[in-house]
Amino acid sequence: MSPHEAERMLAFDAEHIWHPYAPMPAAVPAQPVVSAQGVRLTLADGTELIDGMSSWWAAVHGYRHPDLDAAVTGQLGKMAHVMFGGLTHPPAVRLAERLVALTPEPLTKVFFADSGSVAVEVAIKMALQYWRSQGRPERHRLLTVRGGYHGDTFGDMAVCDPVNGMHHLFADVLARHVFAPPPPLGYAAEPDQAYLDELARLAAAHAHELAGIIVEPIVQGAGGMRFYAPEYLRALREIADEHGLLLVLDEIATGFGRTGELWGCDHAEVAPDIMCLGKALTGGYMTMAVTMCTDRVASGITSGEAGVLMHGPTYMANPLAAAVASASIDLLLSRDWRDEVDTIEALLTSGLDGAAELPGVADVRVLGAIGVIEAREPVDVPAVQEIAMENGVWLRPFGKLIYTMPPYVCTDDEIGHIATAMWEIAESLHAPA
Ligand SMILES: *Cc1c(COP(=O)(O)O)cnc(C)c1O
């Protein structure tokens, strides 16, 4: 692309196109990507950047993987899409077979959604409709923890962290749920009995009006990149069982090996009643997510007055997305993904070693293929991105967080580049005045 063409494109983009969580017109122009291959993005001027973000946790196999490209083009030769009302097709059935086999045993039913946010909406709807079907419509609230992120639609926003999720903006229209304090930080931290007691107390106090509990297992992603001990997840499963609540696990960020186990809930050896998957589901190729549930939830809903689950997106179970999702899962399982993630964990741990002592840094944490530097103050995003790009790396910090969740297929050298970029960013941060 000529410099002139690129400039024209960027000017139109800034003036007319919304970007995520951005003002209009744009305050800072976007970077123009013209292609991507392996773990690298190519910009309009030919610059290549290692994608430290995996396109927001999704592109675990990198870009233009031959198997994934073939899955899409192969399906394209049959049909791109067909409605799912009254019709079905091989890509949907093949993907559902894989998901039922791979996810915790009690999860047997699959709802195909078109994005992670919608999958969480469906999960909430399932939980509420389940209780309505039992003749208990007053059980319509959810217990969750602060620091969570579950998507951007209104139902989802109501269970996101009230501060990060800007609840005050929509205070009068968001559903009111029950919030416990954020789980104490640290995957390996000793469980805090006072916190466990508080969870139990809140659940008991509100059980009569609660449909379920919703959390991200082990890693809270966009709400703060916080890791917590498996003990808290086990406690939530026990609390749910004690009060008959449905445990909803949002595995949209944690699923498919990112945390070092295939599912976040595997760390605690618990199974949810409802589970959401997205992001890496299609290997970063297409938008698709799923909401899975148990026989009990499904039959509970179906035996109720409505007799059906009241949801059905136009692009439900899109065949292109379903085909590439199956191919992505096959590819993941065909490789030693656990070894890849463990290697990334070790390289990020050693690569970020010592950064916690820098004056502008509050905390450094690594779990699975996730590395986080938490600054003491909110960072200057364009300045931080410039340092990353000078190091040949694409990172997208938010708030106080500079983090990476690289493609699993990165070489040791590529992870080294990402860690070096994060170190240099950390060094550039100033201590609070
Ligand atoms: C990204 C994310 C979502 C929302 O998914 P979209 O596909 O962006 O709508 C929901 N929950 C979690 C945990 C996520 O990380």
TrEMBL record:
Organism: Actinomadura fibrosa
UniProt xrefs under InterPro entries: Aminotrans_3, Aminotrans_3_PPA_site, BioA, PyrdxlP-dep_Trfase, PyrdxlP-dep_Trfase_major, PyrdxlP-dep_Trfase_small
Its job: Catalyzes the transfer of the alpha-amino group from S-adenosyl-L-methionine (SAM) to 7-keto-8-aminopelargonic acid (KAPA) to form 7,8-diaminopelargonic acid (DAPA). It is the only aminotransferase known to utilize SAM as an amino donor.
Positions of pyridoxal 5'-phosphate binding: G116, S117, D250, P313, T314
Residue numbers binding substrate: W56, Y149, K279, G312, R396
Recorded family membership: Belongs to the class-III pyridoxal-phosphate-dependent aminotransferase family. BioA subfamily.
Modified residues (N6-(pyridoxal phosphate)lysine): K279
Positions marked as site (Participates in the substrate recognition with KAPA and in a stacking interaction with the adenine ring of SAM): Y21
Catalytic activity: (8S)-8-amino-7-oxononanoate + S-adenosyl-L-methionine = S-adenosyl-4-methylsulfanyl-2-oxobutanoate + (7R,8S)-7,8-diammoniononanoate
EC number: 2.6.1.62
Pathway the protein takes part in: Cofactor biosynthesis; biotin biosynthesis; 7,8-diaminononanoate from 8-amino-7-oxononanoate (SAM route): step 1/1
Protein's UniProt name: Adenosylmethionine-8-amino-7-oxononanoate aminotransferase
One Pfam family recorded for the sequence: Aminotran_3
